[in-house]
Amino acid sequence: MTDSPPASSVASDASKGALFVLFLVTFIDMIGFGIVIPFITYLVEDITPASQSANVGIFVGLLMASYSLAQFLFAPFWGSLSDRIGRRPVLLIGLIGNTVFFTLFGLANTLFIAFSARFLAGVFNGNLAVARAYIGDVSEPQQLATRMGLIGAAFGLGFTFGPFIGGELSDPATRWGMFQDTLFETYPYLLPCIAASLLSVFSLFVALRMLPESLPPEDRNITEKKSWVGEMNQIFRNTVSMLNSSRISIVIWISVLFSFGFTIMHAIFIFYTKMPIEDGGLAFSVADNGRVFAMIGITGIITQLAFIGPLTRKFGSRNLIPIASSMTGIGLFLIPYTQYEYGWVQILLVSGLIAMGNGLFTPSTSSFLTRIAKEEGYELGVVMGAQESVGALARILGPITGGFVWYLTASRPWPFDYHTAFHLCGLVMLIASLLALRMPQLAEDENS
Predict the structure, then answer these.
(1) Which residues contact 17 (CB under 8 A, 6 or more apart)?
(2) Domains of the chain as residue ranges with CATH
(3) pTM above 0.85?
């Protein structure tokens, strides 16, 4: 009789409850990212001192970037720790951290508390790579793609429900009498954060009961302890190596430009939609913005479920990448030209264009990059790790750039006014589209 279950037993467990827990962990991760999008601009405006009100755009960009920065900095630490102590405890620690720091963010009444809570939430949400490693531990090669697809589905659903929850539950005291004269009137953005925390608590209890350890003690890396600096240095070397490979680097750079342009929009979208009608905006509420982002998420999911397969078979992944980049760029460019009289129709049309472009771009890029990596004999983990590293930097710089450009231009006259940041999004996507036309032609593409 042995203390640890055989590999087949772990795989069996993984095919039942464990994969559901991993789905929940990823789902909560994306809820944590998306839940603040509808109200973060309003929260920052509420807690920014009057003397600093002109800098709200910069603060929003920095606050959104702090989450991605924390994930980027701490993902190597969590991955290394899980190699030494196992995947299960690291995933449980992440869920506990989520519970605490989601709630703290809802209680933020100063910029310092908001930045601290958001950064620490990103720290404890930096364990997505551990969830992927868990799947790798318990999956046969033929199961890997399907089970990794589960993580992708959780991404899409989390990004759909996160903004929806954030929008619908914000400022409950002005919408429902039962919340008047309560803590939720003092902290109008606490309720959605508590909802996210409760989801995290639920996931924690499910994980305690249903998530077995996937990495047996004899397979753990006990002696080879690499420091954080060592981990980051390895990531840097791998990334530089991939960027020096001409066929791989062009695809990675296209992904970077796409992520950069897309996340610029995250920082500025609410600034535009909440603008007064007389200033050219749509006067949307927090709930309105949450519904728009939910529709973007739903459209993206439908695109990946219903359209990506047939379109890939017809056009090929290579040809879909410039098409997807162009669609997204056109949608981003057109956002500030929405007219209030037709606001909902027009904003849903341009948002749908953005969502469809994003829904086509991500799987097409991953598929094409995988094929190049296999043709050239590179380790797939190294290639995808390099793409994720530079993509993370793009997700950090995008919101900061968006907030800064909005700060510089929003109150200025045409041509450099509130349209400018969206024009920048479109320009970045145009460059990505033109660069995509120079991607290598693979054997299978020639028959597409």
Answers:
(1) 206, 209, 210, 211
(2) 1-213 (1.20.1250.20), 226-439 (1.20.1250.20)
(3) no
